[in-house]
Specification:
By secondary structure, the protein is mostly helical. It is 60% helix and 4% strand. Strands 2-1-3-5-4 form a 5-stranded mixed beta sheet, sandwiched between helices. Helix 18 links the parallel strand 1 and strand 2.
Length: 477
């Protein structure tokens, strides 16, 4: 990498990290806090209870995820690679949300570098810098790369797998294929939807070897190393049914796929409004229609994986906007190609100054409108849960099991630093019989909560929260 290239890339990476320091110290009570709390709880319990990656546990003991009671708090979704990384960091820093967010931010900055290296191989440093620029600074990606979620880590492993597979194709050194196999396996374990995003690797292999790929023992070894750990994990999970959340609804709940609502939410709301915004859509379209160069169909293979993923997990992508994290690299690449197209319009046909001006205006729109859309994601809309959680952590026994009702959102329960229930899913008498006698609420005006406060033992009470100790003879009065 030439010196001036290195300076540009390093400056971009430093800036990418710097913008992610915005409200980096916010508690896990922001947008999609429920998923972040579940993820962080697994890491926290690795510190508090011992490192058990094959039996991960979070804080929720309720039956809300699959209808089964989960007194052991099993959490069997993705293999806890990201959770383990956060736990490793917390081992040295202490359990603080800011360090988990910084971990995700650093992982994303490294991903930015790999995206640059991947694109530069095919399209040169200018397009590579633009791709890295968009990946680093799209407001949507800035926010989600400071969340406590496994998605950005999966993206990192995917980009690493693309990069190392390209290296193996060029150098034919086994070490590159071994790293690629490990990275691919890690990506799938981190978030299983990564399986869909292995198509670019299949494309690269087919481009080089055509149908003789089936005769390459190294490729068979790569496939085995990549997929067997995931299959083993899925088989192991069967032993813990209470810890496996329902996930089938993420495929096509309500038969929403290809209906008007699907196109409205994915293309108009998420792409056109939240991620690309009004400014990014024309740049993305220009990138699509530009004739492929040395990359041939490689970029389109990444885009195809993104589209296939959105279609397969139709209701998941409609329900949750964090589900679009994996498609950001493909969007960044085509935004870069579209931007470069406006900067290199043939002067025989176009005014040489108009294209760059339009490109800069559209880029400004991406940032302005994008930030407008995601600025509220950083807000702590219910700061009472943080205050109440600190009070619980200060006043109740460390082994106390608590009820922290918050419409099933585990963010409140997470703030208490206790195990328990984020929802009242059974009679209060049943909770008491099972050893759960503490309830904390931020809905202090509710008649039922007021009645508990009147007849049960009040541990602490303010205008914002109430902590009570319940007994059978104070219930139902």
């Amino acid at each position: 990498m030439k010196r001036f290239q290195l300076i540009f890339v390093l400056a971009l990476l430093v800036a990418a990290f710097a913008v992610r320091l915005y409200k980096i110290d916010r508690p896990i009570a922001d947008w999609h806090s429920w998923r972040q709390a579940d993820t962080a709880a697994v890491s926290r319990n690795f510190i508090k209870e011992g490192y058990t990656p094959f039996v991960p546990k979070y804080d929720d003991m309720s039956s809300q995820t699959n209808g089964k009671d989960n007194p052991n708090r099993y959490r069997f979704v993705e293999f806890p690679i990201y959770n383990s990384i956060v736990a490793f960091v917390w081992y040295f820093t202490g359990i603080k949300d800011i360090y988990a967010r910084l971990t995700t931010a650093i992982i994303t900055v490294i991903s930015t570098l790999f995206l640059y290296l991947i694109v530069s191989r095919y399209s040169g440093r200018k397009t590579a810098l633009l791709s890295a620029f968009f990946f680093a600074f799209i407001p949507y990606n800035i926010f989600y790369s400071t969340t406590v979620l496994p998605g950005p880590t999966m993206v990192f492993f995917l980009l690493l797998s693309y990069f190392t597979f390209q290296k193996w194709l060029d150098k034919q050194k086994v070490i590159w294929l071994l790293i690629c196999s490990i990275a691919t396996s890690a990506a799938i374990l981190t978030w299983p939807i990564a399986l869909i995003f292995t198509f670019p690797i299949v494309y690269l292999a087919f481009e080089k070897y055509h149908f003789s790929i089936f005769k390459k023992p190294y490729l068979w070894a790569f496939a085995i190393v990549s997929i067997v750990p995931f299959l083993a994990w899925r088989l192991w999970m069967i032993n813990y049914p209470a810890g496996i959340p329902n996930w089938q609804f993420l495929i096509n709940e309500g038969n929403i796929r290809f209906k008007g609502a699907f196109f409205q939410w994915i293309f108009a709301e998420r792409l056109g409004n939240l991620i690309l915004t009004f400014g990014g859509v024309p740049l993305f379209i220009l990138g699509l229609i530009r004739k492929p160069g040395r990359e041939k169909l490689f970029y389109f293979s990444i885009l195809f994986s993104s589209l296939a993923y959105v279609v397969i997990f139709a209701s998941g992508n409609v329900r949750h906007d964090y589900y679009q994290i994996p498609i950001i690299p493909s969007l960044a690449i085509f935004l870069a190609i579209g931007t470069k197209t406006l900067f290199t319009l043939p002067k025989e046909t176009f005014n040489r100054y108009i294209g760059p001006v339009i490109a800069l205006i559209l880029i400004c729109f991406i940032f302005a409108f994008g930030y407008y859309q995601i600025r509220g994601y950083y807000w702590i809309n219910k700061p009472e849960i943080v205050k109440a959680g600190k009070a619980v952590d200060r006043l109740l026994p460390k082994d106390a099991i608590v009820i922290a009702p918050y419409n099933g959102d585990t963010a409140f329960l997470y703030q208490t630093n206790r195990h328990g229930y984020p929802i009242v899913d059974r009679p209060l008498e049943k909770f008491i019989d099972d050893g759960t006698k503490y309830l904390v609420s931020v809905d202090v005006g509710d008649a039922g909560i007021q009645n508990l406060a009147k007849h049960c033992k009040v541990i602490d009470q303010t205008k914002e929260y109430l902590i009570v100790e319940m007994f059978k003879d104070c219930i139902g009065k």
